[in-house]
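Good morning C.,

I know you're traveling, so I'll keep this short. The sequence:
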Amino acid sequence: MLLSARSIASLLLLGGVVIFGVTGSYILGHLGHNFNECMDLVNSIYFTVVTLSTVGYGDIVPITPIAKIFVVVFIVFGMGAFLTALTSISGDIASKRILDLTSKLERIEEEMNKVKVILIGSGGVNLSLAEKFEKEKVKYVLLLSDKTEAEKLSEKGIKAYAINLISEDEIKKFRPERVKNIIVDMQNTSDMLYVILILTELAKDSKIIAIVHNEDLEKRLESVKKIKDITIINPSKQVANELFSSFKAS
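The tokens, ready to paste straight into the viewer:
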């Protein structure tokens, strides 16, 4: 239900105040010359709305003491009813948005608990794995630094999220300590090294696989293996070795 009982009650109160304003100004307008204008039904509704909304154009005004007292009472009760209704309805809308956001976060949390693999970086290996995982219904997430690229991949059905990859707090949100495998395949050598250092602290029990594309990074990651046993894969070197073996065999 969008509106609470309090909001409905405040709207009913506001409606009662409006009826009081319209009826009172209409009756006073017909009992004597209490206003500077003839108070027919249209003018009574107009005067009530203009007064209640505090616009106060001044084209219709009370000119007798009893009419002035009526307007003062109407404004006091009217403003109270209006502010109460506004506060109640605003509170209901805010509460609904908070509940929707909470539900969305709970769904994301539930999905993250099912994730088995985290892919970090937009290297070719990770992109290929993401497509494969999507087809095979493997629970995974792909974390990228480029928001535009993440949006394009999401349109293709890839579970891609754009975050600051070198932020420990951002990576923490995806619970790396709960997954079995984390594959890092990034273009920027320095960033990749930093991300792996972060993961050695956050995901002590997870298997970390580093996809490297140059020997310099491979050598630098060897030093990280002293902290945590990570798997280093150099696809270019593997392909070269396989081709060399096939040429040698022939």
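Safe travels,
E.
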